[in-house]
Every structure is written in C-alpha cells, then in structure tokens.
Design goal:
Structural class: alpha+beta
Shape: rod-shaped
Distance between the termini: 92 Å
Largest sheet: 6 strands, antiparallel
Strand content: 15-25%
Radius of gyration: 43 Å
C-alpha cells in the first residue's frame, strides 16, 4: 500500500532530498517543504481512513436492523399542506385539507410559500413510548410545532429567532411521550429562505443518541482533518513562500470550515446563536465566499494566466457575480436570491471540472487531481439532488440520511485531499520550471560570456606607428552590444582606414549584426584587387557592400545600422570619408575643431542608399575622433555642451591615452549603469 501511495497517489515534490526540517526554519525553504508535503498528503489520507473507520464502526451502522428498529422514516405518519400565503395561522392549518406525503422525502424547492406538516402517531403498544421526531433540515429560517388543541406552539426556532440554549439538537427535533392507545397530533409550520427539502425521522432515545454521537464523531474527525490541512498549508507557505498554499488555506477556511460548519448548523449553535440577521445570511455568505475561493484556487492551480490567458481574464466575472450577490443579500434576502446562488454554484463546479478535464488532456498534470477533487463533490451533490426530486428512490434508511451528511463530508474530505495533491503537484511543477529557468539562465549567461569574449576579439587593440597612434574604447551597456569599431593599415599604399558603426537596439541581435559588419569590413579592406582603388572609390564600394550585408543579415527584422568610415593618406594627409547616418567625425586642429557633418542613409534601409561623402586634410599633431551617440547620452550633460566639452578635452596637447582617461571620467561619473552602448576611436596623426 505504501509503495502504491508513493508511486501513484502522491506527487514527488523533491525525491531523494530529505534534510532534517525544523519548524519555520526558512533556511530549508526549497528543500524541506516538498518532503513534508509528501508526508502530509499521506497523513491526510490516513485521516480520511480514520473518518471512514469512525463512521462504519459507529453503533448506528454496526447494529443489526430489524423491523422494529429505529430510526424509522416518518413520512408515512405525515400529511402536508402548502399555503402560498406566508401569513397563514395555526387555526387556518387545522381547518385545511392535508394530503398524505407518501414514503419519500419532501422537496418544495426555493419558495416563499409556507409548508405545513401534520404528524399523527398512535401508540398501539401496552407501554408508554418515548420518541423523537426529527426534521432533517440543516438551514431553516422559521419552524413552529403546534399540538392539536393548543393555541401556542410547544416548540419553535429557526435562524430568524434567537436560539434556545436548551435546544442542543442540530435539526428541529420534537421530543414527546405517548401513553398506551394515545393518539398524538402535531402541526409543523416551515418557512425558509433556503430550500425546503425535508427528510423526516422517527427515533427512540437510543437511536437519537446514537445518531447524534455518530454525527459528532464524523464531523469531529472531518474538522480535525481540515484543521490539520490548514495548519500544514500555512507551514508550507512559510517554508516556501509559494502563494498557492495561501490560496489553498483560503479554500479550506471558506468552504471546508466556514461553509460546512455553517451549513450543518454548528456555528449557529456555538458561535452566533443570538445573531438573527447574520445567522440567516451566514450560509449564503459562505457559499459565495467559497465561490470566490474556488475561482482563485482554480486560476492559481491550473495557471490559467499561462494556459488559457483569454479565459483567465473572463473568469473574474464569476468573482464579480459573487461580490454583487453578497451586497444584494444585505438589503434583500429571499429564496429567489438563494436559488440563483445555488444554481450558479452548480454550473460553476461543472465548469471548473470541464476546465480540469480539458487541461488534463493537454498534459497539465495538476489538472488531473483538481478534476478528481471536483468530481467527488459533484457526484454526491448530484445524487442528493436526484434523491430530493424523487428521481431515484432510496429505501435504505442509512443511505438516505448518509447522502445528506456522512457521505457528503467524506466526499469533501476526498476533495480536500485531492486539492492538496493538486497544489503539491503544481508546486512541484513550478519548482521544476524554476530549476529549468535557472539552468537555462545559467546556460544563457555562459553563452553571453562566450559571446562577449568573441565580440571583444572583434575590437582592435591600441596601436602606435611612426605615422599615427590609435586608442579605442568599447563599452556595451550589457555583456554584448550593438557598437563596433575597427581600423586597417594598408602598408602597401600607406593608407589608414578607420570605421565605427552603431546597430539599432541592444543585446544579442545587434551583436550578431556587428559580427557581420566586422567580417565584411576586414574581408573587403584586405582584398588585393580592392585595395588598389583610390580612397574615395574604396570607401564607396566598402559602404555599399556592407549595406548589402546588413540588408541580407537583418532580413525580416527591423535592425538598421549607422556607420562612418575614414581613409587617411598617411603620405599626403588627405582625408576621405563616407557617412551612413552616423554621428559627425571630429577633426581636432590646433586652432579649433572641424565637424564633418555630411550624413546619409543608414545601412539596411534600402538597396540603393545615398551616403554622405567628402574629403578634408589633416596635418601632423591633429586628431581624428570617431564615436557613437551613446557617448553623448551617457555623459549626463546637454548635447551642445558635450560636443564643445569633447573638443576642449581632445584639444589638450596630451597623449591619446591621457585623453581617453579624461573621457572615461566624464562618462562614468555618477553613472552606475549605461543607458546605451558607447565606443570611440582617437587617432593622432604624425608626420610621415
């Protein structure tokens, strides 16, 4: 049995990990709770077995039934009269024509009418008999028992009256004695805001005591089971901080404790016997509160925001309905309102069961246990309804009563267990997903580290020669970015090519496109047939070819790139440039700065772009500065001041490395994180 429970019934939240767990020791939050969850589910099942054992070994169940044994169905002793006028009196009832009730329970549904029952019993024995007449009706607004020939009721009560502290019976129960040959006649007036669905019993003292003892025992075990599950769910939440356990606790409080205790009259007896207004509405309130709890539980357990997002948004209408009906009941509480609630609740349970079946077929494992949980309650409620409307005839006295109490509590216990298993299974799945996400994130971080190393390899290091000195800086806002820079020294033609680009966006897509630009630039720049071309033609050819690469690489995406390339004839000082929508090139001279502002079409926008081209002249000691717009955005100053400030810094007669240090201080000052990638090239020209 244990092997079966371990392998088939209870979800393995964390197999193989069984550390010692201390109460409320949050250091074992992710490890201990699943193990405790497995043990708890087994404890809940053992409690259910105890519930069944307590019931089936009770005196009422164990005693041998005979013809004269009690309890007996009291319907053969009853006649009925339904008066649509709620103001009918006992005097009118005595003159009314009563109809024999037959042998089945009496169901009058949700009605404003007053139901009168006439009980006639003759003692045909030779001894005085002591009997109890019980109307098995858990929620009754008003009831009155009149003895024939007496104007005042001999026994009365109901939710709309303060409860008599001497009356400890859960149901309206008339205790009477009849002498030998005596005929007893009573009239019972019933009026209810809830359903009038009556099962009547005739007990002797022994069967009455046995029934109430059994019910107390069964309900005590049931309450212990639910309280244990409630404490367990609170502990599980404190151990894991997983909100599903709070939702489960809310479900236990509202339905399994609040509704069941109120529906079976225990709260009226022990908690609010004198609160007339609240006692009459409490059952209705807990029905709707349970509907809200069930809605939240289903949404959380089935993860509808992920599995059925469109339906998930619609389901809040159910919660709104419950809140609206609760507010309505504050001002107008009637049988029609209760009927609306009961029927909508039944439809809601069928809907939740259908959702569970649907997602079960979609291989979402928590839905399997949730479907079984709802099915148990639906089956027993449906069977009770069929019995109430007379569709099925039940002659067995035990089964007739058990459908209303004992089997209903057992079904609710089974529901609680399977809801707990569903929560455990959902928690297990969430933990697996977290582990998968953690593994995937770790793998992604490793891949990003590798990509960062590859992208760093694209960036050329600083270089010095007798003709120039180059210092570069490259700072992605994340591990990888969309900025790229490079240079190529054509020693055969004594020519230096400088290039810098900025791909739109950030992250991996932009970084992949920089790799394509990198390969195109160096592949074409070093081509023997191309490097013979004049600088102006070479730059134009390079930019058009790179534009084709960007168009092909970024196909079906919105990625674009800006780029500027400069060709410096190191022998003559002639500077040719081409600009594809990039920031201007700065040429820092001794007497000030020149801004090469010719723009053009960005790369990847179209196949036949228009680029900004031109030429200038540089001399020894002058500095070329190429940068991306992230340098301006990360400096935290106004743009005009930035350009002016940059020209002042670069005008200093200091080494390019010193100038780089000044720029880095300007950008990093007060900036914990970068808003955008930024890169730049400082190229100091020297005499040939």
């Amino acid at each position: 049995m244990r092997k079966f429970l371990d392998s088939r019934i209870f979800p393995k939240l964390n197999p193989g990990l069984e550390p010692p767990i201390r109460l409320l020791d949050l250091s074992h939050r992710d490890a201990g709770a699943p193990v405790l969850g497995n043990r708890a589910m087994k404890a809940l099942s053992c409690s259910l077995l105890l519930l069944g054992y307590a019931y089936f070994t009770s005196p009422t169940w164990a005693q041998e039934k005979t013809v004269e044994s009690f309890p007996q169905m009291a319907e053969p002793y009853l006649a009925l009269w339904v008066d649509t006028d709620p103001g009918s009196t006992f005097a009118q009832a005595e003159q009314a024509s009563f109809v024999p009730s037959g042998t089945q329970q009496l169901n009058f549904g949700y009605s404003h009418a007053v139901v009168w029952l006439k009980l006639q019993i003759r003692n045909t024995s030779q001894e005085t008999i002591h009997r109890f007449f019980e109307i098995e009706l858990d929620t009754i607004s008003r009831f009155d028992f009149f003895r024939a020939g007496q104007a005042d009721p001999v026994y009365f009560g109901g939710l709309e009256r303060p409860r008599d502290p001497k009356d400890q019976h859960r149901h309206p129960t008339l205790e009477f004695k009849l002498a030998p040959g005596e005929l007893g006649i009573w009239y019972i007036r019933l009026q209810n805001n809830y359903s009038i669905n009556v099962i009547a019993w005739l007990h002797d003292a022994e069967s009455m005591a046995s029934k109430e003892t059994r019910e107390a025992l069964v309900f005590g075990v049931y309450a212990g089971l639910i309280l244990f599950a409630l404490l367990l769910s609170c502990y599980m939440f404190l151990s894991t901080l997983h909100r599903s356990f709070v939702v489960f606790a809310f479900m236990l409080l509202s339905f399994h404790l609040g509704f069941q205790f109120t529906n079976f009259g225990l709260t009226w007896i022990h908690l609010w016997p004198q609160s007339i207004w609240w006692a009459n509405r409490a059952t209705f309130f807990f029905i709707e509160l349970s509907n809200i709890a069930g809605l939240i539980f289903v949404k959380e357990t089935l993860q509808l925001h992920r599995n059925l997002p469109r339906l998930n948004r619609f389901l809040w209408v159910i919660g709104g309905k419950s809140v609206l009906l609760i507010l309505w009941s504050l001002f107008d509480f009637s049988p029609s309102l209760v009927s609306l609630t009961i029927h909508s609740t039944g439809l809601m349970m069928l809907f939740y069961y259908s959702l569970g079946i649907f997602l079960w077929h979609k291989d979402y494992s928590p839905a399997k246990y949730l479907s079984i949980a709802w099915l148990t309650v639906i089956v027993f409620n449906f069977a009770s309804i069929l019995q109430a409307v007379g569709f099925i005839q039940i002659e067995n006295t035990w089964l007739r009563s058990a459908l209303r109490f004992d089997l209903m509590l057992i079904s609710c216990s089974i529901q609680a267990i399977f809801l707990a298993i569903a929560i455990g299974n959902q928690f297990e799945q969430v933990q697996r997903e977290k582990e998968s996400e953690k593994t995937a994130r770790k793998k992604l971080e490793q891949n990003l580290d590798d990509a960062h190393a590859v992208q760093d390899a694209f960036i050329r290091e600083n270089v010095q020669s007798h003709s120039f000195e180059i210092v570069t800086s490259h700072h992605p806002s994340a591990k990888i970015g969309g900025d790229w820079l490079g240079y190529y020294h054509d020693r055969d033609h004594n020519r230096l090519l400088l290039a810098i680009s900025d791909v739109t966006g950030h992250g991996l897509p932009a970084a992949l496109l920089t790799g394509a630009i990198h390969g195109a630039f160096y592949g074409l720049s070093s081509h023997q047939e191309l490097d013979r071309l004049p600088s102006e033609q070479l730059l134009s050819l390079l930019m058009h070819r790179i534009n084709e690469v960007v168009c092909m690489t970024a196909l079906n995406t919105s990625l674009l790139a800006t780029m500027v390339m400069v060709a410096v004839d190191l022998a003559t000082g002639r500077i040719d440039y081409i600009n594809a929508g990039h920031t201007p090139v700065m040429l820092i001279r001794a007497n000030g700065s020149d801004y090469i502002l010719h723009g053009g079409s960005p790369l990847g926008l179209k196949r036949d772009p228009n680029f900004g081209i031109g030429h200038s002249h540089g001399a020894s000691g002058e500095t070329l500065f190429l940068y991306t717009d992230g340098l301006l955005e990360n400096a935290k100053t106004a743009k005009r001041l930035q350009l002016h400030h940059l020209s002042q810094i670069l005008a200093y007669d200091e080494s390019p490395q010193t100038l780089k240090n000044r720029l880095e201080q300007l950008v990093s000052r007060g900036a914990a994180t970068l808003e955008d990638d930024y890169s730049y090239i400082i190229c100091r020209l020297r005499s040939a």
